[in-house]
Amino acid sequence: MVALQGSEPDRTVPALLVKIGRYPQHAGGVGVLRTLGRTGVPVHAMVEDRFTPAAVSRYAAGRFVTPTTGLEQPAVLVDLLLAVGRAIGRRSVPVATDDEAALLLAEHADRLSEWFLLPPVPGSLPRRLADKGGLHRLCLEHGTPTPRSRAPADHDGLVAAGRDWGYPLVLKNLEAWTRLRTPAVGHTTVVRDERELLAACPPGRMPSVLVQECIPKEQAEDWFTHLYCPADGGRPLVLTGFKIRSWPPDAGVTTRARALDNPFLAELATEFCRRIGYRGVADLDWRLDRRDGQYKLVDFNPRTGAQFRLLETVDGLDVVRALHLDLTGRPLPRGAQAPPRSFGLGQLDLLSAAVRGWQLRSLPGELLPRRGTERAWLCRDDPAPAAAEAVRFAGTVAHRAGPLTGRAWRRVRSR
Predict the structure, then answer these.
(1) I need a surface site. Which of 8, 295, 298, 342 has the fewest CB within 10 A?
(2) What does the alpha-carbon distance between residue 58 and residue 382 come to, in Å, rounded to a whole number?
(3) SS3 236
(4) Are 23 and 347 in contact (CB under 8 A)?
(5) How far apart are the C-alpha atoms of 340 and 388, rounded to whole Å?
(6) Start and end of every ATP-grasp domain (predicted)?
(7) How far apart are CA 301 and CA 224, in angstroms?
């Protein structure tokens, strides 16, 4: 059992991994189970089926097979959460791993507080932060640097953004629930000219999309801050890291990163959260624009980030452990950020590295795990999630490669 230096968790208070939508291969959820389970806290999980990586973790004290799509009405999802809470049998600490779950917990705290311990975040704030347009307005209001952004009302406004700013541009789904119900793009997408812009958002019904200035990767660095803002408004725990690779490349989930203490960025995140009155866990993405030397806030996720286990203090405190300690009345150790180490996301990082190597015509950096690397899936004390993820990953590759192989074989036979 792992013990935090300076504060013991209340092991009588369970935690619940809360998910909305189908994404069974999520390393962050497994990380939640492991980080709290290792301290002796019983952690229950909402899972898509009994064979997801989270469901087979040795640290899952209970499994609730509750497949959702995000198309359900909020009242239905609240009733589902309340049923899970009653089944656990006592108030627990929910840990959201997607924006929709975070919004649901905040906006329905009056009902959910019967069975869950929740940070006192203003109910409407997580939705404003998860909304890309709302985040942009908050940044402007509070003087936090951010890339130029627009939420066009029609295709004329969409095309005008490209003609005013030039290309490339970044497209993002505007609102949290939109990405599940009527996504404008499958993920953060870079378009390089007007043709690609209109291909992504064809004429007709205008999608709910944000257009954002693209800071050239040759003149940028990608950073992130994982933080926890205590319920009493005290100084937050802020930990910083540097993104090396992602999937899809330059626009998706982090596949390789380094924990690097960045006091300037930590203070920037602290001040922004203080001004908006945020409480709870958050994952913020920043881009350092070398053209003007500013760290620009590009995303504020009002929930746990997928790579949160990379970042911890010398006391062994990460943001999920901080959430549980604080909401159960335990003090938070105030140690410095731990020395640098790496994070790797298994097969997805190999794909990202291969694409990056092909683009650069050279071997990518940080290809092999360093000593002390935090692996998203593989670990000695909980091997089953890595096996479950490998099976699902192979199935996904086979499913997507099948049609491509069939077309290639038909071309060969036709010659």
Answers:
(1) 8
(2) 6
(3) coil
(4) no
(5) 29
(6) 136-328
(7) 11
Q: In what order do the strands lie in the sheet with 342-344?
A: 294-301, 280-289, 220-229, 237-247, 253-259, 342-344, 374-375
Q: Which amino acid is at 352?
A: S
What would the two tokens of residue 123 be? 């109910």
Dihedral pair phi/psi, residue 197, rounded to 5°? -60, -45
Q: Alpha-carbon distance 107 to 169, whole Å?
A: 33
Q: Give every strand in the sheet of 43-47, ordered side by side.
A: 60-65, 43-47, 15-18, 93-96
Cα–chain center distance at 324: 19
Residues in the chain: 415
DSSP bridge pairs for 227: 238, 282
- The answer, as to whether pTM is greater than 0.85, is yes
Tokens of 309: 């286990």
pLDDT tens digits, the chain, 415 residues: what are they?
776 777 899 999 999 999 999 999 999 999 999 999 999 999 999 999 999 999 999 999 999 999 999 999 999 999 999 999 999 999 999 999 999 999 999 999 999 999 999 999 999 999 999 999 999 999 999 999 999 999 998 989 999 999 999 999 999 999 888 888 888 888 889 999 999 999 999 888 788 899 999 998 889 999 999 999 999 999 999 999 999 998 888 777 899 999 999 999 999 999 999 999 999 999 999 999 999 999 999 999 999 999 999 999 999 999 999 999 999 999 999 899 999 999 998 888 888 888 877 776 666 666 656 667 888 899 999 999 999 999 998 877 765 555 433 443 343 344 4
DSSP label of 374: E
CB distance 246 to 255 below 8 Å: yes
Q: Do the beta carbons of residue 212 and residue 169 sit within 8 Å?
A: yes
Residues in a beta bridge with 340: none
* Token couple for 307: 């790579």
CA dist., res. 221 & res. 218, Å (int) = 8
Q: DSSP for 106-170? A: HHTHHHHTTTB------TTHHHHHHSHHHHHHHHHHHT-----EE--SSHHHHHHHHHHH-S-EE
Count the neighbouring beta carbons within 10 Å of the beta carbon of residue 12: 9
Dihedrals φ, ψ of 58, to 5°?
Answer: -65, -20
Nearest to 130 by CA among 103, 170, 104, 96: 103
Residue 105 C-beta-side C-alpha neighbours within 13 Å: 30
Cα 168 from Cα 265, distance rounded (Å): 26
